């Protein structure tokens, strides 16, 4: 049977946060976009703890903020860490200080089935032609460029779509990314395995931190404890790949064994029961998730989200990187389709910004692992950082600036940006004021969060948030040398004046 052949402007592969974001921001410029998703939504996904820039920055550009608010997700004011040598958890808050808590100084803990479904339906509302139960089987191209895809429709019929651009947002486990002809390079540092399940009735941190993610280190790794509702908790152990043998037998026993060796989580789950039925009844494992592709683009095709790179679950960066990349990819494609710049130039901007964001987080997370020193433990000894690069670490403050940014958001962009610059020096104090911390960890946190912020690294996440809140009002400087700047509506690139 011959395939049904169609033409469109852009095909997006995958309906996760990366794909939905890209597709919506392309459709907002009036382009014809077909999004192909292999599953039928809502579908399960891990990655439940979000950052404020996704909720308030990207969320507003997508026009989905009110819907997210109405979904009653657990409000996350920050993270609580049993990390370092002090047994008492300390907090990092998105607001510099509790009294400054404002309209964008929080994120959500989300059931991804609900969150991803909201984003995908929102894409359809914006005119994206969303086709679920439609796995892409092949990318069509020649030496010059990628030219489309083949997929199988829900009725088993083969389809072929020709497009000017193909966006691969098909996540961690698909092989579509190989069509950009790069190599997937796995991290030597984050060679971990995650084992996770769900519990009913676990304890909560005291108010106002009850919605925080709790990350607690133990000898063999660390455990995330994410409150998804008043009673449902996502619990996952991240351990070294060298301990993979421990996961061979009964996975429930393995997870409960890790919980047993992590005092605070053991206490929090003392009266809880593991969910054993439905979507959350399964114990799942994930490995080989820390990597970056050697290239994110080739003519006609671009990688977004986990298709391109992911680092590690600690600090909730996955959905942020996926949605940020979706914004960058949409700007690039919108610019080319409008005939306003060359593909080479806009994707240089895309890849430069995306890699910068990835690298900053990579360095920060490496240093964050380094703070948990336990010379007796194989896991933590193997993760001592030897080439600590303080300059790279400074860049992390930009993220924090971005997320505690909302206080002045409804006044003026200039005032908002200047607030970011002047207040960022107080971030270290915010970390220490809001929780107990031993001196060694305190010093390192102070170094991580308290270094005076260079203008350049403050810009980007702030810009995403300011733009989300103020729309066209934000003025941006190039982030990269000789780089481009966002257009007035934030949906394309223009040359810097
Ligand atoms: P996905 O969400 O994976 O979406 C890809 C979509 O593509 C899927 O719906 C899939 O069905 C579809 N697809 C695949 N192949 C095809 C095909 N051939 N044709 C059509 N469709 C296809 N991130 C956070 O922000 N916070 C966290 O707390 C967090 N915790 C994590 C814990 C673990 C253990 C791991 C491994 C990751 C975690 N992450 C976290 C990362 C997060 O899961 C991902 O970064 C995020 O889901 C990436 O979004 P995406 O849109 O790129 O891909």
TrEMBL record:
Annotated Pfam families: Trp_halogenase
Family membership noted in the UniProt record: Belongs to the flavin-dependent halogenase family. Bacterial tryptophan halogenase subfamily.
PANTHER family hit by this protein: FAD-BINDING PROTEIN, SLR1998 PROTEIN
Protein name: FAD-dependent oxidoreductase
Classification of source organism: Bacteria, Bacillati, Actinomycetota, Actinomycetes, Micromonosporales
Native source organism of the sequence: Actinoplanes subglobosus
SUPFAM superfamilies per record: FAD/NAD(P)-binding domain
């Amino acid at each position: 049977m011959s395939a049904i052949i169609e033409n469109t402007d852009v095909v997006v592969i995958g309906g996760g946060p990366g794909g939905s974001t890209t597709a919506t921001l392309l459709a907002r410029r009036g382009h014809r976009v077909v999004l192909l998703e292999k599953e039928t939504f809502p579908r399960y996904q891990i990655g439940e703890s979000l950052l404020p820039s996704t909720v308030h920055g990207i969320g507003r550009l997508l026009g989905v903020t009110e819907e997210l608010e109405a979904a009653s997700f657990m409000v996350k004011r920050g993270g609580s860490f049993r990390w370092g040598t002090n047994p008492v958890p300390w907090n990092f808050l998105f607001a510099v200080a509790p009294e400054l808590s404002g309209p964008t100084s929080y994120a959500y803990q989300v059931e991804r089935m609900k969150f991803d479904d909201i984003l995908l339906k929102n894409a359809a509302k914006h005119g994206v032609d969303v086709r679920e139960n439609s796995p892409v089987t092949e990318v069509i191209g020649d030496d010059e460029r990628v030219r489309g895809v083949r997929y199988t429709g829900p009725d088993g019929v083969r389809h072929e779509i020709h497009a000017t651009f193909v966006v691969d947002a098909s996540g961690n486990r698909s092989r579509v990314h190989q069509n950009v002809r790069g190599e997937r390079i796995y991290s030597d540092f984050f060679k971990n395995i995650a084992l996770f399940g769900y519990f009913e009735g676990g304890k909560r941190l005291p108010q106002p931190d009850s919605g925080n993610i709790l990350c607690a280190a133990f000898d063999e790794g660390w455990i995330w404890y994410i409150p998804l509702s008043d009673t449902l908790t996502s619990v996952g152990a991240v351990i070294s790949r060298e301990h993979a043998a421990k996961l061979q037998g009964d996975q429930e026993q393995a997870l409960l064994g890790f919980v047993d060796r992590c005092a605070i989580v053991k206490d929090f789950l003392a009266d809880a029961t593991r969910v054993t039925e439905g979507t959350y009844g399964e114990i799942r494992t994930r490995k080989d998730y820390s990597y970056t592709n050697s290239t994110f683009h080739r003519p006609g095709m671009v990688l977004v989200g986990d298709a391109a790179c992911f680092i590690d679950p600690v600090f909730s960066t996955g959905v942020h990187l996926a949605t940020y990349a979706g914004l960058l990819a949409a700007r690039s494609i919108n610019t080319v389709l409008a005939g306003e710049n060359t593909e080479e130039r806009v994707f240089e901007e895309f890849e430069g910004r995306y890699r910068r964001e990835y690298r900053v987080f990579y360095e920060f997370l490496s240093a964050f692992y380094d703070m948990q020193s336990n010379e007796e433990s194989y896991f933590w000894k193997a993760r001592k950082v030897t080439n600590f690069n303080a300059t790279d670490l400074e860049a992390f403050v930009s993220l924090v600036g971005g997320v505690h940014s909302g206080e002045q958001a409804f006044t003026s962009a200039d005032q908002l940006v200047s607030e970011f610059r002047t207040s960022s020096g107080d971030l270290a104090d915010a970390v220490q004021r809001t929780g107990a911390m031993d001196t060694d960890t305190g010093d390192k946190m102070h170094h991580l969060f308290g270094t005076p912020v260079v203008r350049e690294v403050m810009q980007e996440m702030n810009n995403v948030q300011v733009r989300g809140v103020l729309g066209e009002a934000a003025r941006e400087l190039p982030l990269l040398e000789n780089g481009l700047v966002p257009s007035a509506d934030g949906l394309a690139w223009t040359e810097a004046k």
